[in-house]
Design goal:
Length: 472
C-alpha cells in the first residue's frame, strides 16, 4: 500500500500577519464558527420549539466540523522546501496518539539526523545553562542576557551569530559544527528555523523529564526536550473522514442532544419534584441543559471515534523495501522521504508531513565487505556514520572508511568526516528519491517491468520491430 496524503501545505508570507491554524486558537475558532447555530438553537428552545433547536444543533455542528477540517487540512502546515530526503536513527519509535491527545490518527516518529548522537541534544529547557561557568548559551537562547525567560528573541532572530549547546555531554561546545542547528548539513537544512515571524519552540519540557543524578548527563529516553529531532508523520484519514461524514457527525450530535435533554429533563423533574411543581420545573430545566450537553458530547465522541478508527496512519504504508519494515525500534537506521513543512498547530517546528517513503538502512554486519559493496553501481562506504567524540566506533572500522582518529573525534568539524557523511546521505537519498522521479514511475508502468516472479519468467519483453525491407 502506498503512502496517503490528505493535507496540503500552504505558502506563508513573512510579515503578512498570517498565522497557521493553531491549538491556542482552536476553541475561539470553533466558538466563533458555531455562534449562529447556537444562538438559533437557544432561541428555539426558549420558544418551546425543541425539534427546531435540535436540528439547528445538528446543522451547526456539521458546519463547524467542516470549517475546522478545512483549517486542519489546508491551513496548518506551511510549505518549506518541497520534498526532501533524510538519513538518521529512530529516536522515538512510531506511535499513534489518542483521539483527544493529538486530534488526529497520524502515525508518527522522531529521528535523530545522521551523524548526530543522542548526547548531542540540549540538556536545558530553553537552550541555556545558567548553572555553568561561564554561562553556556545555545542556539535558541537570548545572547544578550542569560537570565531572560524562554520566548525572548533568540540569536537567530537578532542577526547575531548563534551559539552552540549546551549538549548532554558537552562535546558539541568543543566541536561547534556538531550542534544540530549549526552543522551545515541535514540539521541546518531540515531543522534550523527559517520563518522569522512564526514561533519555533525547540523544547517541550515536562516535569517528569528532569535530569538524572549529576554526572550521568542523560535524560530519560521518553523525554521530549528538544526539537533537535526530525518529526515524521504518516497520515491517517481522521479529519478527511470527519469532513466527509460531517452530516452524520451532526446527526449523531443532534440525536445525542435530544436524547440527553429528554432524559435529563425527566430525571431533573423527578429529583426536584419532592419540592412540588416548581421544584419539578426547575429540575427539569437544569436536567434539560445538562442532558443536552452530555448527550451532544456523547454523540460527538461516538461519531468521532468511528472516524478516528476508520483508517489510521501506518508508517509501513510508505515502505519502499521488498519486505515489511517490521517494528521500528530505538536507534534503528532509516532513510525517509516526504514533504518538508512547518507545523504551526502546536508551538511550531519543522517536520516531514506526509511521510512518502521509508526504508531501513542495512546494518554494517549485513555487508560482506563494508569498504567495497556495490548496489546498482554505487558503493556504500559505510552504510551509516555517527560522530564518535569518545573514539567510537573502533579504529578498524573508521580507518577502513578512510578516516583518521582525529576525524572521528572532530565529527563535522573535520573535512574528511563531513565529506563522507555527505556521500552517504547523497547515495541513499539518490536511490530513494528515484522512486518518485517521473521518468522512473513511467518506466515502472511499462509491461516489460510488471513482472512478479522474475523478469525472465513472467516479464513482457517488448516485441522487436520487423527489419526494414531489403533495398532493391
Amino acid at each position: 500500500m502506498s503512502f496517503r496524503q490528505y493535507t496540503q501545505c500552504y505558502n506563508h508570507t513573512v510579515g503578512s500577519g498570517d498565522k497557521p491554524f493553531n491549538e491556542s486558537d482552536l476553541f475561539s475558532f470553533a466558538l466563533g464558527t458555531s455562534a449562529p447555530g447556537l444562538i438559533a438553537a437557544i432561541v428555539a428552545f426558549l420558544l418551546g420549539a425543541n425539534l427546531i433547536g435540535f436540528i439547528a444543533i445538528a446543522i451547526q455542528y456539521a458546519v463547524t466540523i467542516t470549517a475546522i477540517a478545512n483549517q486542519w487540512l489546508y491551513h496548518r502546515l506551511v510549505c518549506l522546501g518541497g520534498n526532501v530526503c533524510a538519513v538518521g536513527a529512530i529516536d522515538k519509535p512510531p506511535e499513534t496518539d489518542t483521539l483527544l491527545g493529538a486530534f488526529d490518527n497520524d502515525n508518527f516518529f522522531d529521528m535523530r539526523l545522521m551523524p548526530h548522537r543522542y548526547d548531542d541534544a540540549y540538556r536545558t529547557a530553553n537552550a541555556q545553562d545558567v548553572s555553568a561557568t561561564p554561562v553556556v548559551l545555545g542556539f535558541f537562547a537570548d545572547v544578550s542576557n542569560a537570565g531572560v525567560p524562554t520566548g525572548s528573541p533568540p540569536s537567530w532572530k537578532l542577526s547575531i551569530p548563534p551559539r552552540t549547546g549546551p549538549s548532554l555531554d558537552g562535546n558539541t561546545e568543543i566541536f561547534p559544527e556538531n550542534d544540530i542547528f549549526l552543522d551545515k548539513f541535514q540539521g541546518t537544512k531540515l531543522l534550523r528555523p527559517t520563518i522569522t515571524d512564526l514561533p519555533y519552540t525547540p523544547v517541550d519540557w515536562k516535569t517528569e523529564t528532569a535530569l538524572k543524578p549529576p554526572g550521568t548527563h542523560e535524560l530519560p529516553r521518553a523525554a521530549n526536550v528538544t526539537r533537535a529531532t526530525l518529526h515524521c508523520e504518516a497520515e491517517g484519514n481522521f479529519w478527511q473522514a470527519m469532513k466527509d461524514t460531517a452530516g452524520l457527525q451532526g446527526l449523531a450530535v443532534g440525536l445525542g442532544a435530544a436524547g440527553g435533554a429528554t432524559a435529563g429533563a425527566a430525571a431533573g423533574c423527578a429529583i426536584g419534584g419532592i419540592f412540588g411543581p416548581i421544584g419539578c420545573l426547575i429540575g427539569a430545566i437544569i436536567g434539560f441543559i445538562l442532558g443536552l450537553a452530555a448527550g451532544g458530547a456523547a454523540g460527538a465522541l461516538a461519531a468521532a471515534s468511528a472516524a478516528f478508527n476508520s483508517d489510521p496512519g501506518d508508517v509501513n504504508d510508505a515502505n519502499v523495501g521488498d519486505t515489511p519494515l517490521g517494528e521500528l525500534g530505538d536507534n534503528d537506521k532509516v532513510i525517509v522521504y516526504g514533504t518538508h513543512v512547518y507545523d504551526g498547530f502546536h508551538t511550531g517546528w519543522h517536520e516531514i508531513h506526509p511521510l512518502m517513503a521509508i526504508m531501513r538502512c542495512p546494518p554494517p554486519e549485513t555487508y560482506t565487505n563494508v569498504g567495497n559493496l556495490a548496489v546498482e553501481g554505487i558503493t556504500f562506504n559505510p552504510p551509516y556514520l555517527e560522530w564518535g567524540p569518545n573514539g567510537l566506533p573502533g579504529p578498524g572500522e573508521y580507518e577502513m572508511w578512510g578516516l583518521a582518529t582525529v576525524d572521528m573525534l572532530a565529527g563535522l568539524n573535520s573535512v574528511p568526516f563531513t565529506a563522507l557523511a555527505n556521500k552517504i546521505q547523497q547515495q541513499w537519498c539518490g536511490l530513494l528519491s528515484q522512486a518518485f522521479d517521473g521518468t522512473t514511475q513511467t518506466e515502472q508502468q511499462q509491461p516489460k517491468n510488471r513482472w512478479t516472479i522474475h523478469a525472465l519468467v513472467d516479464g513482457c519483453e517488448p516485441v522487436a520491430p520487423p527489419p526494414p525491407p531489403p533495398l532493391k
